[in-house]
Amino acid sequence: MKIFLGSDHNGFHLKEKVFAYLVKRGYDVEDVGDEQLDPDDDFPQFAQAAALKVLGEEEGEARAILLCGGGQGMAMAANRFKGIRASVVWDAFEAKMTRNDNDSNVLALPSRMLENEAGTWQGIIETWLNTPFASAVRFKRRNAEIDEL
């Protein structure tokens, strides 16, 4: 599974930690920016870069992890793209539910909450990456309805 990783200035330091964590565990990770800490950068460009990469992967197994101060901005920007299901997640339970029920393919993390909580963000990421989509008929129907909006 390919994982695209992006952040604005508020998530930059946590993104660096997440990148190292994922690479150490053998995941195929691509950083879509920002490449350096820039206090004046804007999150929508990184959400767009990650969303387009996820949608462009031929195997259909790509996912993205996006980080900004509260996670909400990244999720709102990423969700503008048909086929993206971005979820703001703050604990492992929500990570499990958004994968199981919603087939989330973009994880938006609130760096202000998680920056100093290594055990928490690691648990969120592991749960999100390893929870399969339940594929229940009602879940598939709902995802299709979202794409038709």
Automatic annotation (TrEMBL):
BP-aspect Gene Ontology terms: D-allose catabolic process; pentose-phosphate shunt, non-oxidative branch
Residues binding D-ribulose 5-phosphate, per UniProt: D8, H9, G69, G70, G71, Q72, G73, N102, R112, R138, R142
Cited Gene3D superfamilies: Sugar-phosphate isomerase, RpiB/LacA/LacB
InterPro entries: RpiB_LacA_LacB (IPR003500), RpiB_LacA_LacB_sf (IPR036569)
Assigned keywords, A-Z: Isomerase
Alphabetical list of Pfam families matching this protein: LacAB_rpiB
Keyword Isomerase: yes
Molecular function GO terms recorded: ribose-5-phosphate isomerase activity
Superkingdom of source: Bacteria
Keyword GTP-binding: no
Family of the protein in this entry: Belongs to the LacAB/RpiB family.
Name of the protein: RpiB/LacA/LacB family sugar-phosphate isomerase
UniProt organism field: Candidatus Microsaccharimonas sossegonensis
Lineage start: Bacteria, Candidatus Saccharimonadota, Candidatus Saccharimonadia, Candidatus Saccharimonadales, Candidatus Saccharimonadaceae
